[in-house]
Amino acid sequence: MSKALVTYFSAEGTTAKVAKNLAKQAETDIFEIKPEKPYSTSDINWKNPLSRCNKEKIGKKDVAIADKIESFEDYDVVFIGFPIWYYGAPNIINTFVKEYDWTGKKIALFATSGGSDIGKTADKLTPLLGGKGEIIAAKLFSPSVTKEELKQWAGEVLK
Fold first, then answer.
1. Contacts of 159 (CB under 8 A, 6+ apart)
2. Entry pTM
3. What are phi and psi for residue 140, nearest 5 degrees?
4. CA–CA separation, 81 and 140 (whole Å)
5. Maximum separation of any 2 CA atoms in the chain, in Å
6. How does pLDDT run across 58-79, given as a tens digit for each residue?
7. How far is 75 from 2, CA to CA, in rounded Å?
8. How many Cβ atoms from other residues are within 10 Å of residue 126's Cβ?
């Protein structure tokens, strides 16, 4: 039996809600990916070209993460959740992926968005795995996703 972990970054709570429901339905551990310096509302205002999220994305900057996962090596399957920013994962997710050894791990991406799809997010994250892990699924969920839908998807990923 695989040991699984749901990880997530959430800027406004939408992804957090989905992640918590997913972890409950899949009966996994959960870990919140939090930046060392929390985002303010103005930091994530993508309409402002000088906002923090724009500076990070354009500058391809890593985002320092507040905590580390204890015993990451014990997990076989890792779900990674995030909001879609600029048609992909926020830079904090890139940083998160680069900080761990993904050898032998299966990864399932899930995202939330106000209008974008998950696009080529898996393709963009794959090189950051260093050829060690495998992205086996990538799915966009609406904020109104049901517990049953999450349970079904988690079952498909974990089989």
1. none
2. 0.94
3. -95, 130
4. 9
5. 47
6. 888 899 999 999 999 999 999 9
7. 7
8. 16
